[in-house]
Amino acid sequence: MSKPEIQKVPAAEDRSLPVFAEFEEIANRIRQRAFDLFSTRGYGDGNTLDDWLAAEREICWPTAELKESKKAFKLKIALAGFDGDDITVTANPTELIVKASHQSERGDADDGDDEDVRWSEFRSAEVFRHVELPEKIDVDSVTADFKHGMLKIAARKAPLPQEKAPKSVAVQTAA
Predict the structure, then answer these.
(1) pLDDT of residue 174
(2) Kind of pairing, strands 64-68 and 72-78?
(3) Distances (CA, A) of 102 to 81, 86, 97, 111, 138
(4) Which domains does the chain have, with CATH numbers?
(5) 74 touches 145 (CB < 8 A)
(6) Nearest partner of 143 among 1, 27, 4, 2, judged by Cα
(7) Which pLDDT score, from 0 to 100, does residue 143 have?
(8) What is the pLDDT of residues 117-152, one digit of tens each?
(9) Pairing with 63, which of 21, 95, 144, 174 sits 20 to 30 Å away (CA)?
(10) What is the mean pLDDT of the chain?
(11) Burial 35-52 (b: 16+ CB within 10 A, else e)
(12) Do 148 and 80 form a contact (C-beta atoms < 8 A)?
């Protein structure tokens, strides 16, 4: 079984990895498609979230589920048709980005049989999933497992900063 690659970015402000630019391009396409869906209906209220979700599904969003406990987050993403080697998880303290891509081999390659492909729906695929987390995570704790087309990511929540006890200060008075 192959493991997905995990890229750990310790600072949320660090956007130097190429996946951040790739995701921004995808997000712009989603924004434009959501606007197109919205404008097609004549700018009425009430369906903007539906338009956004429809645009995400159309462009590249696989289905997902985020669970939260007191100590951790668990994210599951359906990635049928991919291998673990096709998947990269990028984690920083406030978000997770999953990118999966593979090249599909065309059926017309010489594979030793005498069959010709008349049509095929197999194609190369690339999907992204971006999840902003409601609390910071410990980036070093992020793990990913891929089995039977399901990617499972686990991340412990970052420890909360310790609050300092109030300090008493003696007030000097002049006599």
Answers:
(1) 67
(2) antiparallel
(3) 9, 6, 17, 20, 29
(4) 5-105+120-156 (2.60.40.790)
(5) no
(6) 4
(7) 95
(8) 787 766 657 888 889 999 999 999 999 999 999 999
(9) 21
(10) 84
(11) eebbeeeeeeeeeeeebb
(12) no
Block residue for tokens 């987390």: 133
3-state secondary structure the chain: CCCCEEEECCCCCCCCCHHHHHHHHHHHHHHHHHHHHHHHCCCCCCCHHHHHHHHHHHHCCCCEEEEECCCEEEEEEECCCCCHHHEEEEEECCEEEEEEEECCCCCCCCCCCCCCCCCCCCCCEEEEEEEECCCCECHHHCEEEEECCEEEEEEEECCCCCCCCCCCCCCCCCC
86 CB-near residues (< 8 Å, 6+ apart)? 79, 100, 101, 102
Q: Are 106 and 38 in contact (CB under 8 A)?
A: no
